[in-house]
Amino acid sequence: MRSPIVKLVAQRIVLGVLLLLAVSVLIFAGTQILPGDVAQSILGQSATPQALANLRQELGLNDPAYVRYFRWLGGVLTGDLGKALTSGQDIATSLGKRFWNTLFLAFWAAALSIPLAIAAGLVAVRYRNGPVDKAISGFALASTSLPEFFIGYLLIYFVAVKMQWLPSVSTVYDGMGFVDRLKAITLPALALTFVVFAHMMRMTRAAILNVMQSAYIETAELKGLSPIQVIRRHAFPNAIAPIVNVVMLNLAFLVVGVVVVEVIFVYPGMGQYLVDHVSKRDVPVVQACGLIFAAVYICLNIVADVTAIVTNPRLRHPK
């Protein structure tokens, strides 16, 4: 009875690994075709031809592209992301704290946005086509129409500058208290919440409304159950699979899409680290950050697919 589920889950995992391998090729190729010379950007315009030639030899830039790719991929598989060209620091060590900072911000943004979005979706379904439903849908449409950088600047202007309730710069450091850390990330977390809330709410509402068209919902209504009981006992449990899928996709966006928000609030996460080194044309750092973001996104998509498979009653009970 479990063979269809096991087979589908195994297929999703294998496809995810192959997709990540393909993405690694694209990331490496994309960084190689960037205009300019890496050695020249490191040594500056005043570097002598001999110095440039020596640095290219040291960095392995004279080797064929496929040799450099497999060398880089082999290092990634063994946990060696290389060293930053601009500072000489180990990339894995530098990314460690920043990666956890990004996860900390994404976690609290998700903890705030997911319950709000699901609750708002349930309320919108309960009062569908009424003033409450239209108000919630209008707010969701307005928030999804605004880019995250615009929302971030609005929060900085009104909350940090005008009202002076929270700091405009989200500075965190080792040894910082938990409450102070939460206060520092409040504004970027709110900005991310506004971005993902609308999509999750609208998809929750659509998933439950789709289930509400089923015959067993009509049967439950004929039994005399209240609208809240119908939604809670019958509609919502059967809409879990698409809702979980949407939640996982938005979690992936929270981790991968924090780049702009981190730059706006000068938050020391992976996004800020990536942007800093893009401007310096530090190719190994860009490759490492891009691959980590891709791995997180693909893994969360695999989790979404597996959850949808496991929660499918036709697969759990094939007979």
Concise summary:
This protein has helices at residues 3-32, 38-43, 49-59, 65-77, 91-126, 131-145, 148-162, 178-211, 215-222, 227-238, 240-256, 258-264, 270-279, 283-310, 313-316. It has 319 residues and is mostly helical.
Characterization of this structure:
The radius of gyration is 24 Å and the shape is globular. 77% of the residues lie in helices and 0% in strands. The chain is mostly helical and 319 residues long. The chain has a domain at 104-279: MetI-like fold, CATH 1.10.3720.
State the fourth-level CATH superfamily of the domain at 104-279: MetI-like
Main pleated sheet: none
Percent of residues in helices: over 70%
Mean pLDDT: 80
Low-confidence stretches are none
| Text of the CATH class of the domain at 104-279 | Mainly Alpha
CATH architectural category of the domain at 104-279: Orthogonal Bundle
List keywords for this structure.
319 residues, MetI-like fold, 77% helix, mainly alpha
